[in-house]
Structures are given as C-alpha cells and as structure tokens.
Amino acid sequence: MNDIAFDDIGPQRIYHFYEPRSAMRGVLVVDHTQFRNAAGGVRMLPDISLSEMALLARAMSYKFAWLDLNAAGAKAGIWFDPAGEDREAVLRAFGQAAAPLLQSRAYMCGVDMGTSFEDIEVIRAAAGLEPDADSLANKRLGGLTMDELVTGYGVIKAARRAAELVGRRLDECTLAIEGFGKVGAGCLRLRVVALSTLDGTRYDKRGLDAQRLFALREECGDEAVVRYPQGELLPKGALYLLPADVLIPGSRTHTITADVARTIAARLVVPAANVPLTQEADAILYQRGVTVVPDFVANAGGVLLAVVATMGGGEKDAFAVTEQRIVANTERALQEARAREVSPIQAATAIAREWLARKAQERESA
Q1: How big is the CA angle at 315 (ends 310 and 319), to the nearest 5 degrees?
Q2: pTM exceeds 0.85 for this model
Q3: Domain 13-133, classified CATH 3.30.360.10, yes or no
Q4: How many CB atoms lie under 10 A from the CB of residue 206?
Q5: Best CA proximity match to 337, nearest among 325, 350, 324
Q6: What is the DSSP letter of 172?
Q7: Domain residues of the chain, as ranges?
Q8: Residue 281: φ, ψ to 5°
Q9: Lateral strand order in the sheet of 108-111
Q10: Residue 170, CB half-sphere, CA atoms under 13 Å: how many?
Q11: pLDDT tens digit string along 284-336?
Q12: Which long-range contacts (CB under 8 A, 24 or more apart) does 191-198 make?
C-alpha cells in the first residue's frame, strides 16, 4: 500500500479480487463512504496500479462535488493482457467477485480506458444485473457513443470559455489533442494542428483535416495518424512540445510531469482525461502563466449525461445541461483561482474539499 497517498478523505475502501481459473486480478477503490453510492469506470489494461486507481477515484469524488451530486468517487481496475488471457472469462469473473457491491449499488460501474459498453454488460450480467444496453450513454451518433460525444462536447465548451476568460477566441486558436475519441467530434470545425495516439503524433502547422482523420479512426483506430498522408509523423511524446495555443491531454494519469510542464508550448490546457498533471507540473504551469482548466471540471460530461438519463431526458437535454454546467464551472474555477491567488486546480480542489466537509457536517447535525 506504499504507493497510495492516504489523507483525511480516503481512500476508505479498497477491495482486491482474484479468481484462479481465469487469472482475473482486479481492484476496486472507493474514495470515501459519506454517501450510500459510489461510481466510476472500470479500467482494463496490463499495467494499471493501485495508486492510479486511487487517484482516479479521488478525481471522481471531486467531479461529483462540483456537480453537487451525493455520490462518492470510485474506480475499478483489472490487470489484463489481451495476448494471453480470455477477455470474457476475466470480465465474468470480475462481475461475479464484485456482485455484492454492484447489486447493492454501493458501486456503480461504467466504461473507462480499455473497456467498452459491451464489456460492462458482461460484468453486469455476471453480477446478476439486468442489461442496460439501451441506455442513453450507449446510443451511437456518427460512430461515437453519446458518452464520448457529450464528454468531448463538454471539454470543447470548457476550452471555449477558458479561452474567452484569458482574452482569446477558440476559433482563432490552434489545438493539439492527445487521443481522438472523446473530443474528436467536438473539434471538427476547429484548427487542429497536432493529434497523437499510441502510434505517434501527426503534426501540420497549416492544420489537419480533422474530418478525414476522424474517418480514418473509424477504419483503423490509433493507426489513423500513421495513415494520414500530410504533415509530419512524430513520436507520441512530441505532442506536448509542438507550437499550439491549446493542449487537450487525453491519456493516462500523471503523463504531464514537471519536466514535461517546463516544455509545454500551449498557453491553455484543457484535459479530456482525469489527473493528467502531477502536482509539481501544475505548479510549474501556474508559474509560467499557463492556464489549466481542472480535469474534473472540464470532462464531467459523462456524469451529466448519466444524470440527464436518470431524469428521463434525451440527447438535446444532455448537450444543453452539459454546456450550461461545464461553462459555469469553468468560469467559477478560473475566477476562484484569481481570487485565491492559486492555480485553477488548487482552487477547484479546495472548493471540492469544502463541499465534502460541508456534507459531512450536515450528516452529523441531521
């Protein structure tokens, strides 16, 4: 447990799972137990860590706090090597192991890196839950799920409002995007000059044809950046160094370290992924005058989609609610940062912790 940072919030529950026949090895981190329910995605990769799951669970707690939702943050992880393991058997074993938590809704699972809606349905079925295949989040429009579309839509709306607050227009900015799933559809009409996937970075200072790249992604996934015929093909890590006004990181936790932060060319960072910056990186970017929208503010569209679906809303409602809440929260985070004279992430974290403390006091006095 030496790789986890424990504090006054948590993590309060850590569940380990192992099933010998499938060799399923998983973990579930519940950040705190203030509320009956906890929610977060299931990450399924060969190199996850307990520390990563704890960081992501905390990010979910902060995300719920900023949306004023009485739920705790959680994150599940399954160590999985697709080359040597039976995917469906591993998913079923995880669902059976976590069944008591899933059935009681003490943990509500969703899609995350390395999992799909089909994977989540296998987990739910193994836990004895009814199918949720017709959910609003799983509905597809233009090749993307609503979960992807609404999350990406929120990130772009956050970027647009943040740009305005620092005296820029997003339509006049150049963008560098890490990954192309969740923000792809939202940036088709913007000037994207760099895009990275696991296969590399495609860069063209004149601007990439985002529509063409999006179509290539549907054909060949991450290899789209290799098959795209114009501009330069660079290593994946080159994305952070390229001259662009706005950087949208969309990969793993703590990919932006202190060393990377010193070299980032962008003046505005709007994360599509959770916890992309280390604390040291955030401090360096703040000192350099780079504006960073907190990840748990910018990429909350998926949570808002779930709220809209629960209330019986449809697609238009999801986009409208996402725009309203994320634009307002982006503005609040940046204004509070100025007022408190700290970075936006530090200000937003303080506000989330204040919200959690207030909820704890309400429980004690009830």
Answers
A1: 95
A2: yes
A3: no
A4: 8
A5: 350
A6: G
A7: 13-133, 145-354
A8: -65, -40
A9: 13-19, 24-30, 72-79, 38-45, 108-111
A10: 25
A11: 999 999 999 999 999 999 999 999 988 889 899 999 999 999 999 999 999 99
A12: 193/242, 193/243, 193/244, 194/239, 194/242, 194/244, 195/225, 195/239, 196/225, 196/236, 196/238, 196/239, 197/221, 197/222, 197/223, 197/224, 197/225, 197/236, 198/222, 198/236
DSSP structure string for 119-132: HHHHHHHHTTPPP-
Question: Cα 183–188–193 angle (5° rounding)?
Answer: 85
Residue 364: CB partners within 8 Å, gap ≥ 6?
none
CA distances from 231 to 63, 166, 184 (A): 37, 30, 18
Q: Are 78 and 94 in contact (CB under 8 A)?
A: yes
Model confidence over 205-235: pLDDT tens digits?
Answer: 999 998 888 788 888 888 999 999 999 999 9
What homologous superfamily is domain 145-354 in, according to CATH? NAD(P)-binding Rossmann-like Domain (3.40.50.720)
According to DSSP, the β-strands at 13-19 and 24-30 are antiparallel
Give, in degrees to the nearest 5, the angle at Cα 325 between 366 and 351. Answer: 50
Q: Using CA atoms, how far apart are residues 278 and 263, in angstroms rounded to an integer?
A: 15
Cα four-point dihedral sign 292, 348, 324, 251: positive
Please give the Cα distance from 292 to 298 (Å, whole number). Answer: 10
Return all residues near 45 (Cβ < 8 A) that are at least 6 apart. 77, 79, 80, 113, 114
Q: Do domains 13-133 and 145-354 have the same CATH topology?
A: yes
Q: Is 53 helix (H, G, I), strand (E, B) or coil?
A: helix
